[in-house]
Amino acid sequence: MNEAAGQFSTGVEAALAEAPRAPAFIVTLYGDVVEPRGGMLWMGSLIECCAVHGLNESLVRTAVSRLVGAGRLEGVRIGRKSYYRLSDAARGEFREAARLLFSPPAAPEDWLLCLSETLRETEPPAPWARLSPNVAMAPNNDDVAPLDGVLMRAKHLEGHGDLHALAHETWRLDEVALAYERFLERHSGLLDRLEGDAPLSPSVALALRLRLVHDYRHAALSDPRLPRAACPQDWPAERARQLFVSAYVGLSAPAEAFVGTQFLSPDGALAARNEETERRLFQLKREAAT
Question: Domain ranges in the chain?
Fold first, then answer.
């Protein structure tokens, strides 16, 4: 992957100069490349991929050890080579994250309210937010787990109260907006690069796609996905989503060709494409066309 590293000094690739945190980036790599292709990767391939992003072998091995200790990865030794896959517990989390990235649900139109005395004793999980000692509120997304107590649906009546101010204070929307803005700043040049005359090499395309996923995943997972009426008028989530979808689709053909030659499992090179990667790409293309 030295070719990719050598091209990071100019143009769009300059945005990749800042190295990501090793554990979080390894999680991104498994979610985007490894898990949909069978889930097991040789440590040497992992080290080579991370080196392009400024993460040396020592950092990678330490991060992998910590992920194993945290129950996120499992190691298998075959001969002299070590391979790692996601643990069963981590796979469920990855499926939910993949759904948010590749097939996100429509924005909710109303809210959930929960009235319960048990809220006085425990902090509700995100995106639930406590409004008073025994009242919590959450966007009515289909993946929001209900709390124990009296559960109700609620709809904001326009003109009654400042919903924007409530949402901004309760869910810290300024921090979410900043994550989206940073994503847009780092990756806004990708579309011009993809439309340019000089094609991206497969190694560079994969590196760019991994950082695209890494940064967008960070922003999207911090987003409580509130009803649009609760968000500021200049809410950057829509622009970030459009950039992610267009850039991911544009980078995928060369990126996946590189995966099919350079990423090794116990059975040989990972598949460049399979049913799961084609499904993800189909969903994004369909979204881009709407």
Answer: 2-105+167-289, 111-154
Q: What are the residue ranges of helices labelled H in the chain?
A: 2-6, 22-29, 43-51, 57-69, 88-102, 163-171, 173-187, 190-195, 202-222, 237-262, 275-289
Q: What is the pLDDT of residues 251-267, one digit of tens each?
A: 999 999 999 999 999 99
> For residue 67, what are the β-bridge partners?
none
CB 26 within 8 A of CB 64: yes
| Listed residue (275, 204, 172) closest to 15, CA to CA | 204
How confident is the model over 60-97, as pLDDT tens digits? 999 999 999 999 999 999 999 999 999 988 888 888 88
Phi-psi region of 4 (alpha: psi -120 to 50; beta: other; left: phi over 0): alpha
First-to-last alpha carbon distance for the chain, in angstroms, is 36
d(CA 261, CA 272): 8
Residue carrying structure tokens 């993946």: 143
pLDDT at 12: 53
Residues of the chain with pLDDT under 50: 1-11, 14
CB 86 within 8 A of CB 32: no
| β pairing state of 81-86 and 111-115 | unpaired
What is the value of pTM for the model shown? 0.90
CA separation, residue 277 to residues 34, 120, 130, 259 (Å): 10, 45, 39, 12
Residue 166 token pair: 């409530």
The DSSP symbol for 105 reads P
φ and ψ at residue 76, rounded to 5 degrees: -135, 130
The answer to whether 114 and 151 have CB atoms below 8 angstroms apart is: yes
d(CA 267, CA 40): 10
Q: Are 149 and 115 in contact (CB under 8 A)?
A: yes
